[in-house]
Design goal:
The protein is mainly α and 204 residues long. It has a domain at 28-129: Arc Repressor Mutant, subunit A. Helix content is 53%, strand content 0%. The chain is built from 10 helices and no strands. Helix 3 (44-52) runs antiparallel to helix 8 (104-129).
């Protein structure tokens, strides 16, 4: 009977604690802090700072980085303004990347590659987004229409061609010849001017 009495004293179900921690602002402050930290990971210089100060040697911090992967979910990713932070967050899950970012040369390399991505991203993306113009149609070679057959040309004798050809115009040998046929020389034209002067002097 004692065993039955003891079993009655042990509760059959475990009761959950009544006073659970609840954020006073419904998690708004925590949301903003985690969002700010995640977006800081878009800067390779900040990751280099974390590596040099040995944050990546803390197991709790590495666990925190794994926890922050929930920002890749669609309901949270819409708040991200710097998408590169999610890319670096994924790389930080690898221990080799965390150790490499402690060296300044690797930090400069990551920063340079990030710059080149920003510089060429738009042009590279437009190659796949913009519709390509259709290829220009190649003009087919035009085939000339078959011309009607021409009648054969009959060859005429040379004497017939000479008789039918019009006579060529003959140039006058006199540079001052007139078309009326009377050859008036250059001296005659000058003599006319002398006669006019004489008549003018006689009137005076």
């Amino acid at each position: 009977m004692a065993s039955g009495k003891e079993s009655e004293d042990i509760p059959t179900t475990l009761s959950l604690p009544q006073n659970l921690y609840k954020d006073p602002d419904d998690g708004r402050q925590r949301f903003l802090l985690e969002l700010e930290f995640v977006q800081c990971l878009a800067n390779p210089t900040y990751i280099h700072y974390l590596a040099q100060n040995r944050y990546f040697e803390d197991e709790a911090f590495i666990g925190y980085l794994k926890y922050l992967q929930y920002w890749q979910r669609p309901e949270y990713i819409k708040f991200i303004m710097y998408p590169h932070c999610l890319y670096f967050l994924e790389l930080l899950q690898n221990a080799n990347f965390r150790n490499a970012m402690a060296h300044p040369a690797n930090k400069e390399l990551a920063h340079r590659q990030q710059f080149y991505f920003w510089k060429n991203y738009r042009n590279n993306r437009l190659k796949f987004i913009l519709p390509k113009p259709p290829p220009e149609p190649v003009a087919a070679p035009t085939i000339p229409a078959s011309a009607p057959p021409q009648p054969p040309v009959q060859s005429l004798p040379a004497a017939t061609i000479a008789m039918t050809a019009p006579p060529a115009p003959v140039l006058s040998p006199m540079p001052y010849g007139n078309p009326s046929g009377s050859a008036l020389g250059k001296s005659d034209m000058r003599s006319g001017g002398i006669d006019r002067r004489k008549r003018k002097n006689e009137r005076v």
